[in-house]
């Protein structure tokens, strides 16, 4: 049965209740490390939870269905998922990555992947000529769109065409938009990444990561890696993500509505010097985002007139927490300079626009009037 998106959030691709047919509505947590075999050479389909677990299998089916991939793999965190992706490559390989990525990805590439013999070209994939950087040993292009935290929009179709022309993999981190607003496979991606901690889980109560692919060969290689390395998502965390996904469409719509109202407020605040959001008509990336996504999301970044004001806002909000992460029911304010991008070299941060005056906001689902009032009093009390 081919179901709509909201239905898939609850059932996956069709009604898929508990395997033991008890009729349970909430998929069970199979909190077990191992499984009994009926006899030698016979299996229930599950052997050891490092290889697979029914609860993890279910959340993987749901995420694969939402993204339109043939397989999804659930990891213990978003960074565990990206680490597994990097194991597809070998010493001597070269990757092109966007310069404005989540700081954890940059830290992994610069400190672990390069140690393992993989080299990178970090460029602005939203505006630079990507083909200029392709070498004989280039194997993949890695992008986020919108980027974290400067909200640059990368044309996935355009990058996909370049990747296919040169026989490269296109890897897209789709965390900011979620499969509700953006489906990279329809635009030419080969692997889609999610920090499931964020919008998929949606409640700031667990860590998770996902790799989704539409290639049987890549799926087989990733399945070998996840069982070998042992970074699969635990049963209880799998269940938390399953529960969170059920309300994904509702949360995404409400959070986006709040983000748009907050953007409008910030644009009219004299002490705010710049607002970065892909849904601002007339700005760079607006038309591309509109053409490849069904919404603009709930992530935004803004710059204020001084570092002192930025720090004042972070300590003066009475409702909005100053915290890392994003995509939950709660609105969060993040200071990229000392949090998400603290390990990125200062000259790189500044070049990308991440100054000490920049704040990132993840809009939640609260009453937006309360959020705006909280930001207003924090800004104007300086």
Question: What's the short version?
Answer:
The protein has helices at 5-11, 54-67, 78-86, 103-113, 156-165, 178-181, 216-229, 235-245, 248-267, 286-292, 307-316, 346-352, 368-380, and strands at 71-75, 94-98, 119-123, 138-144, 169-173, 191-195, 209-213, 272-276, 299-304, 332-334, 358-362. The protein has 382 residues and is of the alpha/beta class.
What does this structure look like?
The protein is an alpha/beta fold. The protein folds into two domains: 5-245, Type I PLP-dependent aspartate aminotransferase-like (Major domain) (Aspartate Aminotransferase, domain 2); 249-380, Aspartate Aminotransferase, domain 1 (Alpha-Beta Complex), CATH 3.90.1150.10. It is 36% helix and 15% strand. The protein contains 13 helices and eleven strands. It has a seven-stranded mixed beta sheet with strand order 1-7-6-5-4-2-3, with helices on both faces. Strand 5 (169-173), helix 6 (178-181) and strand 6 (191-195) form a beta-alpha-beta unit. Helix 1 packs antiparallel against helix 2 and helix 2 packs parallel to helix 8 (235-245). The longest helix is centred in the C-terminal third of the chain and has 20 residues, at 248-267. The mean pLDDT is 95.
